Structure formats: C-alpha cells, structure tokens
What we know:
Layout: H1 4-24, H2 33-41, E1 45-47, H3 49-58, E2 62-65, H4 69-73, E3 81-82, H5 88-95, E4 102-106, H6 111-122, E5 127-131, H7 134-140
Parallel strand pairs: 1-5, 2-3, 2-4, 4-5
Helix pairs in contact: 2-6
Amino acid sequence: MINNRFMRGILALSLLLALVLSFGCAAKKPMTTQEMEAEARKHIEEISMADAKVELDLGEAIFLDVREPEEYKKGHIPKAKHLPRGLLEYKIAKIIPNKSARVIAYCKVGGRGCLAAETLGRLGYTDVANMAGGWKAWVKAGYPVE
Length: 146
C-alpha cells in the first residue's frame, strides 16, 4: 500500500503542474476594436500630418495607403503605394521589400493605419509610423492629393 506522504506529494505535484499549464495556455481576453487600436498605439510611432507632409516633401519616405481600393481611387497622397490592410501580411514584401525603409502608413482616420503600422513592425520593418488623423485630416489641411 502506498503511504499518505507519497500520495500528498503526487497530489501537490499534480496541482502545481495544472497551475503552470493553465497560466501558460490561458486564452487572451477578447478585445474591442478600440482596445486593439489603443494596444497597437503603445508599440508604434505616430506622427502628425504636418510632420508627414515634411517627409513627403523630402521624398525619402514611402507612404502606404491601407484603405480599400474604392477609397484609394477617390484620392490618395501623391506617389503613395496602395495595399489594403487585409492583404498586408501577404503582399508587403513585394510592395516594400526593404525592411529598413521609412514607411508612413495611413488610412481614412487613423485606426487601420495604426494597426497596419504595428503589423509592419511585427513583420520586421524597422522605421514605420502611422499618420495621425489619416486621409480625412490630410485633405482638410489642404495638402496635395492625386
């Protein structure tokens, strides 16, 4: 017959293993879109429209429009590359192969651009920013459009 001390030891080890596994495998709390954006903003650079305009004028940054095709066709920042956010992970390497290039992402008002900037960082792009205010703010400021 197995003694009680041995059984208590087995029980303690079982409980410890269950705790370790439950913490390591716990599902993440579901998030709202706003919470996802707020979390992404903690990990990205966000620049103002005025700073983005300076970078456009310098001609060294790549502007990445992550809006849908219909939105892009209605107007975009001059020379901006277009890649809808839903295809970003799959096609960015062909659109922007240089992972150290300066990339400024933008969308209509800033949310998709923010998420895109975070995704680019996770994909290894090292010099990425989101343009605060997005396309709407750019147009409102009277900056150039194509």
